[in-house]
Amino acid sequence: MELNLNKYKFTQTWYINSEIRKVLLKHVDKNRKYNILEIGSFEGLSACGFSDNILDHPDSTLDCVDPYILSGTNDKITTQCVTSKTEQMFRNNIGSSKNSNKITHHKMMSDEFFLNNKKSFNFIYIDGCHEPEFVKSDIENSFDCLEENGIMWMDDYCRMTGNKGTLQPFIDSLLEQFDGCYDIIHKNYQLAIKKKIQINI
User: Fold this and answer.
1) Per-residue DSSP letters for 94-145?
2) Which residues contact 117 (CB under 8 A, 6 or more apart)?
3) Are 106 and 67 in contact (CB under 8 A)?
4) What is the pTM of this model?
5) pLDDT above 70 (res 75)
6) CATH architecture observed for domain 17-195
7) Which residues of 57-71 are buried (b: 16+ CB within 10 A; e: fewer)?
8) pLDDT tens, residue by residue, 180-196
9) 14-18, 43-47, 104-108: segment of lowest average pLDDT
10) Is the distance from CB of 121 to CB of 35 less than 8 angstroms?
11) 3-state class of 170 per DSSP?
12) Torsion on CA atoms 81, 85, 87, 88, rounded to nearest 10
């Protein structure tokens, strides 16, 4: 996805080098309507990527869920990067993006968001807390509100988690409950699936 880096401020380059930025446009139609959910926004670069590239349809929306707090998570790597300036950097960045008027920020934990959410989405990007209980909740809740033929894209699928290895076997086991209900469309460091049929969990 195209992103004018001179337009945005950031302290980390995770998104710049990410697979979603490099290959997403192979899997989406820039002209169609997208209701996007992003779990974990950090400094807003991925949200700006969506805003600048695939939110042009007049009815497209992007919901960003990030509490911007240091407590409430054991994800040491992420929380070390979140400072008192991170949320304002996110707001400034999305405010400078092409379709900023279509972006809504929900300053809360993802479990709280899903508890009250009545909306369905055709694209969901999961990049929140990487502790197993949060990953499990985010994947199950996201799949439940993902529309048929919608895409769920998961960051850090092959990320090392200390002495525990990667998240890959844990995520694979979670997805077994949806066996036959999705196709894998991208599998490397990140994982993306496309939902085939609607089921209740």
Assistant:
1) HHTSTTGGGEEEE-S-HHHHHHH----EEEEEE-S--SHHHHHHHHHHHHHT
2) 145
3) no
4) 0.92
5) no
6) 3-Layer(aba) Sandwich (3.40)
7) eeebbbbbbbbbeee
8) 999 999 999 999 999 99
9) 14-18
10) yes
11) helix
12) -150
The per-residue pLDDT of the chain, averaged, comes to 91
The residue with tokens 């497209």 is 60
As a whole number of Å, the end-to-end CA separation of the chain is 33
Predicted pLDDT at 198: 60
List all residues 6 or more positions away from 120 whose beta carbon is below 8 Å from its beta carbon.
35, 145, 146, 147, 150
The token duo for 11 is 């302290």
Neighbours of 140 (CB within 10 A): 15
Side chain identity, residue 118: K
The yes-or-no verdict on residue 73 having pLDDT over 70 is: no
